[in-house]
Automatic annotation (TrEMBL):
<dbReference type="Pfam" id="PF01103">
    <property type="entry name" value="Omp85"/>
</dbReference>
<keyword id="KW-0812">Transmembrane</keyword>
<dbReference type="GO" id="GO:0045040">
    <property type="term" value="P:protein insertion into mitochondrial outer membrane"/>
</dbReference>
<dbReference type="InterPro" id="IPR039910">
    <property type="entry name" value="D15-like"/>
</dbReference>
<keyword id="KW-1134">Transmembrane beta strand</keyword>
<feature type="domain" description="Bacterial surface antigen (D15)">
    <location>
        <begin position="250"/>
        <end position="592"/>
    </location>
</feature>
<comment type="similarity">
    <text>Belongs to the SAM50/omp85 family.</text>
</comment>
<dbReference type="GO" id="GO:0005741">
    <property type="term" value="C:mitochondrial outer membrane"/>
</dbReference>
<dbReference type="InterPro" id="IPR000184">
    <property type="entry name" value="Bac_surfAg_D15"/>
</dbReference>
<keyword id="KW-0472">Membrane</keyword>
<protein>
    <recommendedName>
        <fullName>Bacterial surface antigen (D15) domain-containing protein</fullName>
    </recommendedName>
</protein>
Length: 593
């Protein structure tokens, strides 16, 4: 009997006995395997799994001369006599070895092992290619070590692969592709550690219906920790915060996640949020989310604090093209409180309680190579919200729509091979808020301060203070109902820093306009007809004249957590009442214009 130990990432031991029959050696192997019927989830939910040492019961035909060749190599390696130079080997072993020599020897061993593994992988790939069209059947699929995952959840993923549920036979390549796709699906649930390993074995019995060779599929997983508690700091869109987060994975054994979060920040004084998320029909790309929040946010640009309490439910899915969509309902109780002594009359008029009940839909596609520092690709997003209309109730009613796009292209430099690191990007955002009546017969509800758009700051229109563009009442930025903003940016790698470094020199020009809803006579609309005319008039006004514009130069650093910008800005066009900023401006965020 011979013992072979495979030198692959997945170590295995096989005991092999040989039988001589008429000049040919037959090899019979005995391996340690795991057996379950069909798909097994594991743990108390999936019983019947047992460990056993079994013989495959099959004889693999090996030419005798090849078999004896293996024995000769092994014997030569084990029985080589010591030369005269090796007589003092024990004395040399007792001597202290040079660490550099040991390191070189270890590197040589590692390189040798790597070469053997790569050669084995190449040979395996050749064997698969040569046999890719062979017909086969999948008789069983076993998921190992999924101790906290429901059997029914796994069956919905893997049962369709079984040949009894297929109308036609697999080829070997098709079987491998289908199994690989299901393993990738398991990865996307974020409850298993990567990688998910897949093993194939030929069953001793052929398929009953077709007589084809049967394949047994083994999927080996390792579950991530179910409870994860972390604390830290967060940076994003001109705000910093400290947070504590509790994540409970795989709550009911079907990849459900419960996320509890508490944070204290520079603008959001306190926020407590809970979300529960579950996949629908065992599909990682189709999810349902239920959440709630209670927060208090300081808004110094409008001299008040907003207290928010409410919740939402939504469905999320991803299309085959890679775009993501969301549709859902949200209900919030808002309080404008903590007014400053110098709060404007407009802010005081909207102070107090309001209830927003709305349905919403968003569509997003992102083909950028890097979301924080794109050099090629494009991004697009559309968001629509309908509040307070018809059965939605609440005391605010409007239709709100926003679009956002970004594109980037690399710029080749003559004489520079490969990626030059120079890129040009553009961005555009626009939105409108259309007032509606609470029912079909009532007069339109004009927008409130906490529903309007705001514009300006280091993450959108640089060169202006936070929410510095658009209508103001006294010192307060009270927002607008229609806006448009755009930017053009040239990114250059710094000398002696390198293209791979996420530090760039930025040249930019950006601008935008934010307007309140007004009729052609600059009056506030009061009827549905006036609202329609006012919206047309306001959108036309956006294109009349130059927008508020600023240009500048700065440094950009794309950290994995957020993007940091330090810019020197010069406002070029400023309208009366707008709050601009000349000089240095620092911005931190994840979404820049």
């Amino acid at each position: 009997m011979l013992v072979f130990i495979s030198l692959t990432p997945n170590w295995s031991i096989a005991c092999v006995s040989r039988v001589r029959r008429q000049g040919t050696v037959y090899v019979k192997r005995r391996t340690l395997t795991w057996r379950r019927k069909k798909v097994v989830g594991g743990g108390s939910r999936a019983r019947g799994m047992a460990s056993s040492s079994r013989s495959s019961g099959r004889l693999a035909k090996i030419p005798e001369n090849v078999f004896h060749g293996f024995l000769a190599i092994a014997a030569a390696a084990m029985s080589s006599p010591l030369s005269a130079e090796d007589e003092g080997i024990f004395e040399r072993l007792q001597q202290r070895a040079d660490p550099k020599v040991l390191e070189e020897q270890q590197q040589a061993v590692n390189e040798r092992m790597r070469a053997i593994y790569q050669k084995a992988q190449l040979r395996l790939g050749e064997l698969i290619d040569q046999n890719s069209t062979l017909p086969c059947a999948i008789s069983s699929i076993q998921v190992l070590n999924a101790t906290h995952t429901r059997r029914g959840f796994l069956e919905r993923i893997f049962n369709p692969l079984l040949s009894v549920n297929q109308k036609k036979a697999y080829t070997l390549s098709e079987a491998l592709q289908e199994v690989s796709a299901r393993a990738d699906k398991l990865n996307r649930f974020d409850i298993f550690q990567q990688p998910v390993s897949v093993y194939l074995d030929q069953s001793p019995d052929a398929d009953v219906r077709t007589g084809l060779p049967n394949l047994d599929v083994y999927v080996s997983v390792k579950e991530k920790p179910r409870i994860l508690l972390k604390t830290g700091t967060d940076l994003g869109n001109t705000e910093g915060s400290a947070y504590g987060n509790l994540l409970y994975r795989n709550v009911f054994g079907g990849a459900e996640n419960l996320n509890l979060n508490a944070s204290l920040g520079t603008r959001t004084k306190s926020a407590y949020q809970a979300t529960f998320e579950t996949p629908i029909l065992s599909d990682p790309d189709f999810r349902f989310e239920l959440g709630g929040i209670a927060s208090a946010t300081q808004k110094p640009w409008a001299s008040h604090e907003e207290v928010l309490k409410g919740g939402w439910s939504k469905l999320r899915w991803m299309s085959q093209s890679g775009s993501r969509q969301e549709v859902g309902y949200s209900g919030f109780w808002r309080q404008m409180t903590g007014l400053a002594e110098n709060a404007s009359p407009t802010v005081r008029a909207d102070a107090g309680d309001s209830v927003k009940s709305s349905i919403f839909h968003s569509w997003t596609t992102d083909k950028r190579d890097n979301a924080l520092l794109p050099t090629r690709g494009y991004y697009a997003k559309a968001f629509n919200e309908l509040a307070g209309w018809g059965p939605l109730k609440g005391d605010v009613s409007f239709w709100k729509s926003e679009i956002e796009t970004q594109s980037a292209v690399p710029i080749p430099i003559p004489g520079v091979k490969g990626d030059s690191g120079v890129s040009f990007s553009t961005g555009f955002r626009a939105g409108l808020l259309y007032p509606l009546g609470l029912d079909s017969d009532s007069r339109p509800q004009l927008s409130r301060v906490n529903d309007r758009f705001v514009l300006g700051g280091p993450t959108d229109v640089r060169g202006f203070r936070l929410c510095g563009l658009g209508p103001h009442s006294g010192a307060d930025a009270v927002g607008g109902d229609v806006y448009a903003a755009g930017s053009a940016n040239l990114m250059l790698p710094l000398p002696r820093v390198g293209v791979e470094n996420p530090l760039r020199l930025q040249l930019f020009m950006n601008g935008g306009r934010l307007l309140p809803l007004r009729t052609a006579n600059k009056d506030v609309p009061t009827t549905s007809g006036e609202v329609k005319d006012a919206m047309i008039s306001t959108i036309s006004e956006i294109g009349n004249g130059l927008p508020s514009v600023a240009a500048g130069v700065g440094l950009v650093y794309a950290h994995p957590v957020a993007r940091f910008e330090l810019n020197f800005s010069v406002p070029l066009v400023v309208r009366k009442g707008e709050d601009h900023r000349k000089g240095l401006q620092f911005g931190v965020g994840i979404n820049f214009l």
